[in-house]
Amino acid sequence: xxITLDHDSAVPPFEQVRAQIAELARSGAAPVGTRLPxxxxxxxxxGLAANTVAKAYRELEAAGVxxxxxxxxxxxxxxxxxxxxxxxxxxxxxxxxxHALGVPAAEARAIADAAIQAVYSAAR
Length: 124
What we know:
Layout: H1 13-27, H2 39-46, H3 50-62, E1 66-68, E2 74-76, H4 81-100, H5 105-122
């Protein structure tokens, strides 16, 4: 599993780690059951603080992309649908918030699309 950092990127290192692992899982490049490096091992490899990698792993676990198996380490989870469910929940929260703010639906879509494009462009 190859994780790299772009030190010139405006994207925080933990987000670069999180996004790359999520993409490896999504694309199948890291199939279900693939064991991730230890937090300390990946932190050392990337020149990061262990807490930075731990934050990325925690977010991946909360999204259902990975699961921690105690002494057996952290692995790509079988439930890829959990991350899509979390995304749907986030989208519904966004829709409720912009509706409450009185933002028209077309404008809310444009705002969301611009934010998505900015995040995905920065992650490249």
